[in-house]
Amino acid sequence: MFVKNDESFTCVNCGKTVEKLKYTSRDHCKFCLYSLHVDIEPGDRKNSCKGLLIPINVIDTSKKGKVIIYKCKKCGKEIRNIVASDDNEEEIFNIIKKYSMQGGRV
What we know:
With 106 residues, the chain is an alpha+beta fold.
């Protein structure tokens, strides 16, 4: 079950302040696209892992549009999050390019 949890935060990866999204819960940095493994269900902030989620690819889906695929640096789990409307387009492109250059391997 989705829990709305839209709060400003300081990104642990790049150190920039990330403001509220205002239309849904923000779950990643809009600048570097990194996130934290904090949710069990979207927005609940109940996951004890708290590992750094590294963006490893961005894909287009028919239902949700662009989705960022993350890999948790701590536990290795892969997580998917929808791209936000104000996400850094250049960084999205860089992630896709890096993934392609690695032959689809992380």
